[in-house]
């Protein structure tokens, strides 16, 4: 074989191997992002509100009270300055009307947190039931370790063993080359194969979802069939709802499909384009995950994972509530003084 063809063959092989690694990375990041969006962040938000919801609402009410009293003082001072014929009750009524939207927001928050507390309690009970049933059924082990391993998409043909041999040989050669270059890391193998067998409902749910994302997500598998696209929508819905049985059914159905792979592609330009798109997608997903983790509700995790921080946060809320109450008491005294001044002014005007 001419030297230039050998070089080209090596370049093609390197591109295919890099694309295979990138597909795994993109699938892993997609799974991590979706887990954050659909399960981790909503769960953190519910837990946070279940613990702090009443304190948050009490804080909002304290703030609303202080703002209302300050507004009453402003109107009383204006009435004194202009010598208006208006009573304190009328002023307070106008202030209530001004704050109607704020009061509505506080009321809605209180109702929202109350429902979330009930929902969180229900979810905790449901999780316990699921995990207890899972433990009883599996005795802490997966009864069928082979169940969720991917089958060869050979459609029943007799050449699957040879294909498997060729892939394993190419993979071994790829690992040798990476080791020769001093490159090691988790990308050398499918991370799904390195995970321990699931020991709980949640673990199996996440592991199976990750495998399904690798098979079905359009960003890592652009050559999907219509049915695979429909299945991916069902996978997301089942994952959000914690429907492990439906994910199992979808996985079983998928064993009849062949994965969209590019292993026979021999156009360097096309492979390079695929590689570049995957690199771009990987960076976008990594940036999106960092952004999600930098803001609420993910940042609640630092609080919720530490009981001491939870107690400290409660104390901070209580201090803020007490501070609002102290301000409100001081403002009420000022309001009484201004009310007396306004009434005295009005009496004097009537006498005149």
Structure write-up:
With 352 residues, this protein is an all-alpha fold. The chain has one domain (12-152, 199-341). It has helices spanning 3-82, 88-98, 100-138, 160-180, 191-194, 201-216, 226-241, 244-254, 268-293, 300-304, 307-351. It is elongated and about 105 Å long. Mean pLDDT is 79; it is low at 150-160, 166-171, 173-189 and 258-264.
Q: Please compute the radius of gyration using only Cα atoms.
A: 32 Å
Number of helices: 11
Name the average pLDDT.
79
Q: What is the strand content?
A: under 5%
Characterize the overall form.
elongated
Span between termini: 117 Å
> What share of residues is helical?
over 70%
Question: Spans of 5+ residues with little confidence (pLDDT < 50)?
Answer: 150-160, 166-171, 173-189, 258-264
Structural class: mainly alpha
> What is the domain tally?
1
> How many strands, what sense, and barrel or not for the largest sheet?
none
SSE sequence, one letter per element: HHHHHHHHHHH
Q: Give the beta-strand count.
A: 0
Which descriptors apply to this entry?
78% helix, elongated, mainly alpha, 352 residues
Write the layout of secondary structure elements.
Elements: H1 3-82, H2 88-98, H3 100-138, H4 160-180, H5 191-194, H6 201-216, H7 226-241, H8 244-254, H9 268-293, H10 300-304, H11 307-351
